[in-house]
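Thread: "does anyone have the structure for this chain?"

Original post by V.I.:
We have the sequence but no experimental structure in hand. Need at least a predicted one for the grant figures.
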Amino acid sequence: MFASACLFKEKNFSVNVIIAPRHSDEKLTSSGTTLTQELSAQNVNYTIIEDINTLTNTELKQYVPIESIALCYGPAWVFKPHVINCFSQGMYNINPIPIPHYLGGAHYTWQLLNRNVEGGCFFQEITEDLDQGDIIDSHYFTINEKSTTPNDYFAENLIEGMYFIDDLVNKIQSNYLFKRQAYDDVNSDRLYLPRLRTDKQGFINWQWDVDDIVSFSQGFDDPYKGASTFINGIQITIKKLKKNIIAQPMHPFATGLIVRKTKLSIIVAAPKGFIEITDVFDMNEKNIMSSLREGMRLYTPTKILDDAMAYQVILTASGFKD
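Reply from O.Q.:
Generated one for you, tokens below.
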């Protein structure tokens, strides 16, 4: 969204960014500074609104000029009809997902869990039917197989997304006649996966096969805190891990055991393979690799795994609700 706002400003559009409070202090992966800091640095107007749906038509007019179009990037709200209708040129989502797959939330985490490399950017109309507006324009691509964290997926989608949005801006300025595709045309292939919370759901099940443990942990890697598990009764998070090829089968009872430690990593036994882990942190985000020893076991209690599977993310206008 930030990159798009700058691009539209460069193309001489009048730009106003409307942000929910929970997005205002999010750090951009490209700079490490917050969204509002970067918008201010680029002299892009922005407004923080708790819930845009509570604004009356009169109140909306101070943010919405007569001739305006709304472009939305992961909005915090499900828009009510009076909000949609206040934009004379329409309201549209910029969706950086391979529609109709991976609808919902936590898109790149789910893709990493499933080892999926579909890439897509879509310009989709927002209507009163949630996520079912017509598709106005699209761009498909393939994620590099070397991408192993959500940050990697973010980076690739940013490059491809800006190519798509730059082309979109040029089309809008040249009065390009878009060809609508009805959402019903693709809906039969729909795959919906819900939002996730790392602190509630990112727990490793050590009974999974090695490939599933690795892909799960990669899905909660940067920019998130990492997948969680326990050692000696203490909760930890792990990052920077990969499958290690050791031609030595292990009984399932060895699962989670640290079978080798080097200067830079630990090797952990898992069903049908081994995992090499580079970063291990306590809950204060302190690296505790130096305190780990061969023979220690990584494990996750069954109750915590059950709670993680049962947990459902509920969003309010101001953020998560437990």
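V.I.: this helps a lot. The longest helix spans residues 150-173.
O.Q.: and The chain is about 25% helix and 25% strand.
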